[in-house]
Amino acid sequence: MLQAVTSANPGSGDEPWVGRSIERVEDAALLSGRGRFIDDLGVQPGSLHATILRSPHAHADILSIDVEAAKRWPGVAAVLTGSDVKAVTTSLVVGVKAPVECWPIAMDRVRYVGEPVAVVVATDRACAEDAAELINVDYRPRGAVVDPLGAISTGAPVLHDGFPGNLASDRAFRYGDPDTAFADAPHRFSIDIRYPRNSCTPIETYGVIASHDAGEDAYEVLANFQGPFSIHTVIARALKVPGNRLRLRTPPDSGGSFGVKQGVFPYIVLIAAAARITGRPVKWIEDRLEHLTASVSATNRATTLAAAVAADGKILALDWDQVEDCGAHLRAPEPATLYRMHGNLTGAYDIHNVKIRNRVVVTNKTPTGLNRGFGGPQVYFALERLVQRIAIGLGLDPLDVIKRNLIDAGAFPYRTATGALLDSGNYQEAVALAVEQGRLAALRAKRDEARAQGRLYGIGFTAVVEPSVSNMGYITTVLTAAERRKAGPKNGAQATATVGLDPVGSVTVHVASVPQGQGHRTVLAQVVADVFGLHLKDIRVNTEIDTAKDAWSIASGNYASRFAAAVAGTAKIAAERVAGRLARIAASQLNVEATDIVFARGFVASRHNPENRIAFSRVAALSHWSPGSLPDDAGQTIRETVFWTPPELTPPDEDDRINSSLCHGFIFDFCGVEIDPTTLETRIDRYVTMHDCGTILHPGMVNGQIRGGFTQALGAALLEEYAYAEDGSFLTGTLADYLLPTTTEVPEPEIFHMETPSPFTPLGAKGVGEGNCMSTPVCLANAVADALGVADVTLPLVPARLAGLVRGAEPPPPAGGATAAPARGGDRRLRGEGQASVKGAPEQVWAMLLEPATLQSVIPGCQRVDKITDTHFRADVTLGVGPVSGRYRADVELFDLDPPRAVRLRGGATGALGFGNAEGRITLAPDGNGGTKLTYSYDAAVGGKVASIGGRLLDGATRVIIGQFFTALARKAGGGSAESGGFSLFAVLAKLASLFGGRR
Amino acid sequence: MTRLKADQRHSVRFTLNGRPVEGEAEPRMLLSDFLRHQLGATGTHVGCEHGVCGACTIVVDGMLTRSCLTLAAQVDGCELKTVEGLAPSADRLGVLQQAFRRNHALQCGFCTAGILMSLDHYLATHPAPTEADIRDLLSGHICRCTGYTPIIQAALEAAAQLASSTKETSDA
Amino acid sequence: MKPPAFDYLRAETTGDVLDGLAQQGGDARVLAGGQSLMAMLNMRLAKPKLLIDIMRLKELRQIERKGDAIVIGAGVRQADLLAWPQLAETLPLVALALPWVGHMQTRSRGTICGSLAHADPSAEMPLTLVALGGEVLLRSAKRRRRVSAKDFFAGMMLTARADDELIEGISLPLVKGSRVAFREVARRHGDFAIVACAAMRTPTGVRLAVGGVADVPTARDWPVLDGSALDDALNAFAYELGARDDVHATARYRRDLVRLIGRDLIGEVLR
What we know:
- Chain A: Keywords: Molybdenum, Oxidoreductase.
- Chain A: It holds the Pfam family Ald_Xan_dh_C.
- Chain A: InterPro entries: Ald_Oxase/Xan_DH_a/b, Ald_Oxase/Xan_DH_a/b_sf, Ald_Oxase/xanthine_DH-like, AldOxase/xan_DH_MoCoBD1, AldOxase/xan_DH_MoCoBD2, AldOxase/xan_DH_Mopterin-bd_sf, CO_DH_gsu, START-like_dom_sf.
- Chain A: It comes from Bradyrhizobium zhengyangense.
- The complex is a heterotrimer of chains A (1000), B (172) and C (271).
- With 1000 residues, chain A is of the alpha+beta class.
- Chain A has 26 helices and 35 strands.
- In chain A, the strands form 8 sheets. A 7-stranded mixed sheet of chain A has the order 3-5-1-12-9-10-11. Chain A has a 7-stranded antiparallel sheet with strand order 29-35-34-33-32-31-30. A 5-stranded mixed sheet of chain A has the order 7-15-14-13-8.
- In chain A, helix 7 (230-238) runs parallel beside helix 8 (265-278) and helix 11 (376-394) crosses helix 12 (398-405).
- The relative contact order of chain A is 0.10.
- Chain B has 2 domains: 10-85, Ubiquitin-like (UB roll); 95-171, DNA polymerase, domain 1, CATH 1.10.150.
- Chain B is 35% helix and 16% strand.
- Chain B is globular.
- The relative contact order of chain B is 0.14.
- Chain C has 271 residues and is of the alpha+beta class.
- Chain C has 3 domains: 7-53, Uridine Diphospho-n-acetylenolpyruvylglucosamine Reductase, domain 2 (2-Layer Sandwich); 58-173, Uridine Diphospho-n-acetylenolpyruvylglucosamine Reductase, domain 3 (2-Layer Sandwich), CATH 3.30.465; 180-270, CO dehydrogenase flavoprotein, C-terminal domain (Enolase-like, domain 1).
- Helices cover 33% and strands 26% of the residues of chain C.
- Chain C contains 11 helices and 14 strands.
- In chain C, a hairpin with a 4-residue loop joins strand 6 (135-139) and strand 7 (144-148).
- The relative contact order of chain C is 0.12.
- At the A-C interface, helix 4, helix 9, helix 21, strand 32 and helix 24 of A face helix 2, helix 7, helix 10 and helix 11 of C.
- Strand 1 of chain B pairs antiparallel with strand 1 of chain C, so a sheet runs across the interface.
């Protein structure tokens, strides 16, 4: 249903390039192994390689860091800790007004698992990793909080003194008269949402190569950063140099980003600092474990959304209460995720009264940042789930409730209650087309039929407005009007494009758009070739950025779906300016009026007399070879740089209304899902997605964006979650636990289009890349809720979770047989108990327990036990269990001694793989036969790397090994040998080490 | 029996895309790193280093191989094929590569090399795969850009084209 | 994410392997397909001093019929066995389970015995070995021994293999004409099983083996059961397996699957 795209070069007689799904200029290199990604580019001889030691704790004070052994390791050039970095940098700026610092490395406290603690710089990466294992960090754990509502509850551990109660921002907004609307409305519906954490996880991880010129105190950095380049100011400030002494470049290719590679910037500061301290270029390529644990995450959010609703389903007012969880630090540009959608909190609906409370909290999780959809998934999940609930509550069809509330086609440009100016659209027509072309009636019939057979089949609907081209000022909505007045206005979205003609008349285009696979070079060649009447191959496009040489501004980069709408349009303007001058030059040479000039087929010609023409390259080269022969008014045609920012993007007004984005596409989705009654797996039967993204520049790429967004959204809906335990342990640290969709889970969505061009963009295009990340998770959730007949569903729609919603009471265990362990929820501490019979009276056993030799004999590989006091021991142990052999430092204390009846043991162990701690109680009682009955109970937890990467098997291993320890202890007490048992904590760590593996 | 000492670099020789190559590696050096950083064959990419993402997949002695789960020392004397060996010449793409380009079966191109290697290997012995076959094969790869269906389409098109050209050759 | 340093020994005879294991003991690891071990090395979970590469040993690459058993050598890759023409006829349960092991790109390198050595409780090959009542053939410089499947798996990731022993191969009994069934539930195709079940008809009734729930794959034999007697037996078995919660599934969900899939599979093999 692609509409014809109007020619950018009318009158040429040739089909324009724009609007065609031509093959991409990028692909030949990428398909033959000749891409140039950051790790493919060589480094200067003598460059060093960095690795980062990261915190195993979610929240702890750093008591000391011993780096001496690491520094002495052959090949190591430097080991940096927080204080070293602090000496050459300053804190990253924080986006709210609060006395809070934000460093790229922990200073004296860690606040999330994976937070950098030390950087080792060495001749190669493996060597750096060898040395990192030799660093001893002494932590004193603090209580951790991972739940956003828990974080702001009384008594929660506080992360930053400058954020009292963990609250970084608390703002209330009121638009229209929501209180009256709620008071007068016949119905009120409300929904509580917990949107989970996830990430778009590009397959290429972060990379940074940095060097420092001490003579000029200037940094040069190559990084696969994606923008926005407002962050350049943050980096330069942190490195304590003016912007012109931070030369930031990007490699020619970048392996996906989806927002995520904005988050590389703290590492730019860190690696640049390492380069300065070592005086050598330093390279760091993030590995996958680092990426999953600590790169960046989308925000998780707790939302309560209420609607005042008329009897016919018309929504009269909304009441949003959003608690945004930005993780352990509020890193730039956060809390942007929360405010990006501020103008769009009414979605595709005509709702005049809105009340909002926005709170931003910090928790002991990885700091958040850009991720495709950026605030949209969180908002639409609440809004569109609520719409379904309204329909059920009022006995209406959900589609009818959607249609009842859609903004009228005649209302555009439409100002939303919260300030967005929706540029164009015809939502009713889009819905009608989708219903017809997507065969909704057939889908409904299929559902009826399936249900008649007792199958679990459901249909979901979603209508979504997809904002694109962010207003750089929207984030200032987090400030009060008074604070904004003080800070000065921020707004706009400067796009830049340069078109250059070289001395043989060939055309070069440069934009500051930083693509990560979106095909910008192809589209720009299309746009500019149309303006000049040239062949695609005549245009060469460069999309690398070099902040020292290129035109750029704070909005530069690839985010907020700004390319087609803003950047491509700016390139068109630049080309047209050059073309205008070329036309004057050609007109003087051809003796015609400039208005008679057309560009076609490589010539500049008279429209009326096409034979009167001159080769494009000849006109194009004239500025170089013979500027004197140009007409006086023509100006140079060597290079034209255009900066374009739309006037519609104004700062927030006094009443906090903000036009947060320039363009607003429309998406209407519906889908049918079937749920397996045994496994509760969700199978997507059909997925229909209708898009209006304005003028389509390249249909193949537009559909590519839709499919890609759909697939990432499918992952968010069904599979992906950055899961944390209540103690802050990160549980999904490998790609075997953070589950991305593969070919066997992803169907082809049925894609339909209509085009209402944006009146605000040069090409009429709007963004399209993020929409399905906003619409698809909730559309699938609505379908699953429909299939199961449940009111609440939480993402991801994990089968076990759905089973919990629909399965009744479990068959009880057989009498006298095994029973189920209590459900654990988020509590990761393991508890257990057992008993053993031991020879010897309790007094003998007691004496044995207090001997260091006992510990030494039950800990395998224990070289030495140091007795600190009579009841406090330290040990260094080398363990070998399965394939594992590692050194651990252990500390064991006995307390609450009640001789000869009871004692408690508390112990901890720390090594490169993480930490464990446990507490156990042992009681001794005479067994009546001269022996002793030994009973034990324990309570243990393991954290750090093993929890992140071995989580699937963690509990089982911990339980088994602890049982072995106590058995060994009992055996020792009974005079036997300790055999294969092991002290729990070491053994647990070692055991866990063997837990992970790909399959074989 | 050959025992290579941990702290020394040892010569590793094999055939890469039909040409003999040689370099030096410590025993612990991964094949992916050896290809990329010792030999400069950077077309093979590294995405997870634990065998899940599939970006580093190559062919060793006729076996699909995760080069991140393989030591350089293991392939001494073997025959390796990587993405650099797919095109018939530097300025031409092969049938499979062309099908990828035609179907927009790649965006960032980072995972693509591994996917191409799996398909190139598979199609050589399975001339008429079904969509289900291709989906099963490629479930060992992760692509975050395309949503996979263009890749599957490209694979099926390439298979059909390769089968018909093979048929023409054998008919002739 | 680079491996720690180790020596690498390219074995040319089984004697090389046994000598290496005898000398280095627990500090040596056998490198076969590497699909689990290499990931662990990259994550620095494992730190052997010596890796012994056995994949150049032709004598370990055999799949042989010996009487009423099939013997599969340590060097036999999963893909090799899957491509073995007699597989479906002689080892129908293996033919059903093998395609669930990882992906084509990992089966091409990974070995049958390597998967057993790794002893992941969710893996398909340990489950199959237990279901079939096979044996593991262990060999050190000093002796050879055979260990039954149920004795081989000592716990989660733990086996009866001593540090100086090589898993030389496994022996799987032929179960001719017996009906078998296999089903697995995982989050995605190719993932570790949340629950995997194998069922087979036995001379006295039926056997159900379950992986992914207990610390080791566990088999249970029953006489021919149906109706509520079967429900009760499955329910008791489900509880006895001691299912646990993890990030992918709850214990209750696992028990449900044991009951539901167990019933389906038993119905299938008894039909």
